[in-house]
Design a protein that fits this description.
The chain is 43% helix and 17% strand. The protein has helices spanning 2-17, 24-42, 55-58, 68-76, 81-87, 129-134, and strands at residues 60-62, 92-97, 100-105, 111-116, 137-139. α1 packs antiparallel against α2 (24-42) and α2 packs antiparallel against α4 (68-76). The chain starts with a helix and ends with a strand.
Length: 141
């Protein structure tokens, strides 16, 4: 779970870094705070034996309102939810599931995979987050 959550938090931090809204230290605090908030939130909703179970609970979204976990991380660096909202895509969906993290920008956008593993290789093989944030695998719907 820690790997998937770290990938998701790092991805959101990467989106924020491209907007030049936060310093490097603020981004690090934001990512760390978001990681811890999500680990706590997902603690009893993580089912590696049935990865789709609880996926709605683990889905992070930004549309008309801010996901509370990202809002908590924003306030940790003195960023208002409005500032955070304006620094991220207007419509972002992020799925954090056992063995896979994927996202979609826009309602009709392609689904892009940031991280993918298998149950057998999960503890042995970790893929670089930077690799996936630079060239995610996208699936058109």
């Amino acid at each position: 779970m820690k790997t998937e959550v770290s990938v998701a938090a790092t991805f959101i931090g990467g989106l924020l870094s491209s907007s030049d809204s936060l310093t490097g230290d603020q981004l690090q605090i934001f990512t760390h705070t978001l990681t811890n908030a999500l680990l706590e939130h997902y603690q009893h909703h993580w089912f590696p034996q049935a990865p789709c179970r609880g996926s709605g609970y683990r889905c992070l979204w930004i549309n008309c309102k801010m996901d509370p976990h990202k809002g908590k991380a924003a306030s940790a660096v003195g960023f208002t939810q409005e500032q955070l909202f304006s620094s991220l895509p207007a419509e972002l969906t992020l799925w954090v599931d056992p063995y896979e993290v994927s996202y979609r920008i826009g309602e009709d956008g392609s689904i892009c995979v940031l991280y993918k593993s298998s149950p057998l290789r999960h503890s042995l093989t970790l893929t670089s987050v930077e690799l996936f944030t630079l060239s995610p695998l996208c699936i058109s719907l």
